């Protein structure tokens, strides 16, 4: 009776992959995904249109962008050490995938040996004496055996010289019958995708940091100019008060009050100068350059970049698809799901195929003869049935890690929605406050003009005119701070929407140096 071939059974087992199959992430925020807009969208002038990834191109003044801001962001995205470190982690994950895939194929080794050995044989000296003593006794007993009556002396060497030559090749193939290795590959591939998403998230964070640092620089420069102008006005008021004291129309207390005010304003200038220098150094760090490198480029003051009149934000469902940190958390969830299957595969037998072929001889000229050929091939099955307690504990550990990844994914989704809603609220209310201060500046400017007109007409003093100018400068400083905060909140909104990244293809990243 002919026995059935085991090949179909092996092929059937090879198609088996234990463990739960990944079915995608759960609906962590079904209400928000179904909503057509954000809950806080009414507090800001927004549009449901698709927002541009390069949000910084829309910031500027007089309807134009800020080329310096765009240059700094592009430079940071190309040269930041933070991004380079994240990209290196992608290469590490990709290399791990290649290692796991290599485990699916046979592993082989080739060997070659040529040896010559001189082995001492100290025990042969005793045999030498015993043989020669026996010959002497035989010569006495049978003198006719040895002409002349003296037996020959036999010298036995005290060492042995031998040679050995061997050429061989052996291979081992561990059959992934239950999918443990394939689950490892699945987990490693998901980790690679997660690392790529983290690079994209780092781009989002970096672009926002550059934008906020640049806004901080222009704000500090603007407030420094306004403070210097305010200090100059207060010193003119002090000089007028001193003149009035000489004429008897002002007291020493008036002079002291004006001098105190002028010195307090003077004291505000050095910290602002320090803020300007710190902002330039921070920008140099973000773009991967040494402190002071950007001073010549950034020292000339420019207007503060302002956000556009209407901000496109799309809808919550688009946010959940766009944010890289959500995609990274989802890929981590997929990887942890595959780790459960890898742990479960250890419950089943491990089947390997082993084979070896080689030639061995003590002479070179006989090495490749058929008599020197040796071959062996055998399947090997190992099943540690007494280790199931440890394996089941590993399965429980992998399952708990998967539950943790699931909770982290849900938390990431909810945190992303909270960031977007809060950013919309902050931006909308800050924008409204900025409009109020702009209106206040218009009033202060009109009051200064009226006071100047009265001063020229002789109905107001020079001190009153200078005080009106100082009040206008104070309101203008408050407006400058509010505008900077509005721009900063706009950038935070873009970051919360997950904007500012370009897709990362791990296969297109440059390979690390091969040493």
TrEMBL record:
Domain of life: Bacteria
NCBIfam families per UniProt: outer_NodT
Topology of this chain in the membrane: Lipid-anchor
Subcellular localization(s) per the UniProt record: Cell membrane
Residues spanning the signal sequence: none
Keywords per UniProt: Lipoprotein, Membrane, Palmitate, Transmembrane, Transmembrane beta strand
Family named by the database record: Belongs to the outer membrane factor (OMF) (TC 1.B.17) family.
GO MF terms held by the record: efflux transmembrane transporter activity
Full protein name: NodT family efflux transporter outer membrane factor (OMF) lipoprotein
Pfam families per UniProt: OEP
Main location: membrane
GO CC, one annotated term: plasma membrane
């Amino acid at each position: 009776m002919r026995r059935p071939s085991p090949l179909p059974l092996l092929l059937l087992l090879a198609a088996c992959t234990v463990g739960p199959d990944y079915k995608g992430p759960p609906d962590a925020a079904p209400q928000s995904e179904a909503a057509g807009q954000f809950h806080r969208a009414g507090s800001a002038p927004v549009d449901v249109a698709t927002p541009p990834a390069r949000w910084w191109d829309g910031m500027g003044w007089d309807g134009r962008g800020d080329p310096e801001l765009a240059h700094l962001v592009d430079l940071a995205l190309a040269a930041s050490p933070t991004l380079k470190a994240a990209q290196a982690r992608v290469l590490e994950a990709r290399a791990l995938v290649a290692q796991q895939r290599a485990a699916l194929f046979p592993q082989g080794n080739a060997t070659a040996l040529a040896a010559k050995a001189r082995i001492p044989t100290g025990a042969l000296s005793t045999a030498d004496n015993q043989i020669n003593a026996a010959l002497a006794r035989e010569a006495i007993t049978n003198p006719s055996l040895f002409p002349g009556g003296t037996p020959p002396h036999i010298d036995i060497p005290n060492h042995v010289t031998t040679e050995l030559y061997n050429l061989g090749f052996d291979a081992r193939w561990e059959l992934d019958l239950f999918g443990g290795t394939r689950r490892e590959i699945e987990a490693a591939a998901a980790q690679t995708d997660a690392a790529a998403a983290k690079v994209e998230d780092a781009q989002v964070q970096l672009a926002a940091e550059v934008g906020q640092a640049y806004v901080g620089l222009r704000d500090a420069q603007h407030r420094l100019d306004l403070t210097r102008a305010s200090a100059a006005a207060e010193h003119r008021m002090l000089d007028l008060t001193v003149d009035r004291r000489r004429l008897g129309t002002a007291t020493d207390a008036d002079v002291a009050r004006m001098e105190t005010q002028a010195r307090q304003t003077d004291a505000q200038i050095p910290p602002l100068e320090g803020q300007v220098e710190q902002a330039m150094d921070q920008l140099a760090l973000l773009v991967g350059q040494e402190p002071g490198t950007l001073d010549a480029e950034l020292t000339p003051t420019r207007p503060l970049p302002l956000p556009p009149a209407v901000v496109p934000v799309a809808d919550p469902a688009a946010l959940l698809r766009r944010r890289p940190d959500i995609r990274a958390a989802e890929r981590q969830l997929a990887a942890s799901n595959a780790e459960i299957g890898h742990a479960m595969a250890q419950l089943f037998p491990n089947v390997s195929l082993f084979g070896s072929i080689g030639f061995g001889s003590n002479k070179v000229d006989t090495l490749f003869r058929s008599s020197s050929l040796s071959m062996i091939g055998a399947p090997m099955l190992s099943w540690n049935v007494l280790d199931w307690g440890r394996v089941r504990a590993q399965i429980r550990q992998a399952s708990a890690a998967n539950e943790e990844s699931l909770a982290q994914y849900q938390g990431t989704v909810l945190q992303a929605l909270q960031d977007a809603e809060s950013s919309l609220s902050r931006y909308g209310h800050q924008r409204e406050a900025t409009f109020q201060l702009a209106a206040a500046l218009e009033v202060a400017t009109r009051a200064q003009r009226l006071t100047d007109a009265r001063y020229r007409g002789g109905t107001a003093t020079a001190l009153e005119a200078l005080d009106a100018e100082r009040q206008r400068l104070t309101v203008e400083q408050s407006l400058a701070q509010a505008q900077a905060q509005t721009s900063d909140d706009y950038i935070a909104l873009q970051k919360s929407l997950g904007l500012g990244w370009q897709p990362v293809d791990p296969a297109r990243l440059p390979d690390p140096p091969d040493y």
